[in-house]
Write a structure and sequence with these properties.
Layout: H1 5-14, E1 16-19, H2 25-38, H3 43-48, H4 68-74, H5 77-87, E2 92-103, E3 138-144, E4 156-157, E5 168-169, E6 176-181, E7 186-187, E8 196-206, H6 225-234, H7 237-241, H8 255-264, H9 271-276
Antiparallel strand pairs: 1-6, 2-8, 3-6, 3-8, 4-5, 4-7
Helix pairs in contact: 2-4
């Protein structure tokens, strides 16, 4: 387990924990390559290219993508394991997964945004009130895919019970992740040097809390059919559970359901479902 019990204890005490080098270097580099291909170019290419029409707020920022590495990090097995332990159940779902990019603000297009006020994310991640027992039922993972130093607009995270003036910057090597809750205060900061900050937000909530406003990942979110097909074919059963499919052994995996999935998604592996289906024993 890459995320330890001690790190989870820090999360619950401070409201966040920063885990450096969560991704392997191979995972990080493959993810960064996919990020540039599927979403936004690196800074050096951006300032020398013709990107006047580049829109970083379109549906292409939302999971899944036609890229195996990007899909993998947003459904990372060690991330799933940590979310289960934090929330105390395996009955969780993927509630958010989207990409973000900030550039140093020197180009005419100026896609970087100015620093924001300190805030909590519960307003747009749940319809429920702020209750003490809810603190760790709706959690977010904030990835930095490239190195972030003090001049690269690090996110500022405020420890529980401390003033915003004592917020800690997320200055980390690429491949690091910050776990926080929808009640953790945080804010953006400014660039003071040229460069970029490619990131992703991944959220998990409990299946028994439908008011928590999880995103439903489907073609209606604007993702391409090709991207969805790639994820469904490459995902393991646990990863498919995160977007709504039942686990192997569930009675909903009838012969018709299993064969229908294999027919719709060429390359889908029916074996885990056939081996555990009550209809094939």
């Amino acid at each position: 387990m890459r995320i330890t019990d001690e790190q989870i204890d820090t999360l619950k005490q401070n409201g966040f924990v920063i885990i450096e080098n969560f991704l392997t270097e191979k995972e990080r580099q493959e993810t960064l390559n996919g990020f540039y291909k599927e979403y936004a170019p690196p800074y050096e290419e951006y300032i020398t290219g013709d990107y006047e029409e580049l829109d970083l707020n379109t549906a292409k920022r939302v999971f899944p993508w036609d890229d195996s590495a990007l899909n993998h990090v947003c459904t990372h097995p060690d991330m799933i394991d940590a979310a289960e332990r934090i929330m105390g159940t395996r009955e969780i779902r993927l509630s958010e997964a989207h990409l973000g990019m900030k550039y140093y603000q020197e180009s005419p297009q100026q896609l970087g945004t100015p620093p924001g006020a300190f805030h909590m994310d519960y307003g747009n991640n749940t319809l429920g009130p702020k209750l003490q027992e809810d603190d760790f039922m709706n959690i977010l993972f904030f990835y930095c895919f490239d190195d972030v130093d003090s001049g690269m607009a690090p996110i500022m995270m405020t420890p529980n019970g401390r003033p915003d003036s004592e917020a800690e910057p997320m200055i980390v090597p690429g491949g690091s992740v910050c776990i926080y809750t929808i009640f953790t205060r945080h804010a953006a900061s400014s660039f003071t040097k040229s460069g970029h900050r490619p990131v992703a937000w991944v959220g998990f909530s409990r299946k028994d809390r439908p008011w928590d406003g999880a995103r439903y990942f489907s073609y209606k979110t604007g993702v391409s059919m090709k991207a969805m097909e790639r994820f469904i074919v490459e995902a393991n059963p646990r990863q498919l559970e995160l977007i709504g499919f039942p686990p192997p052994g569930d009675p909903r995996w009838t012969k018709e359901m299993i064969t229908g999935m294999a027919e719709r998604y060429k390359g889908f592996n029916p074996t885990p479902y056939l081996q555990t289906s009550m209809y094939f024993k």
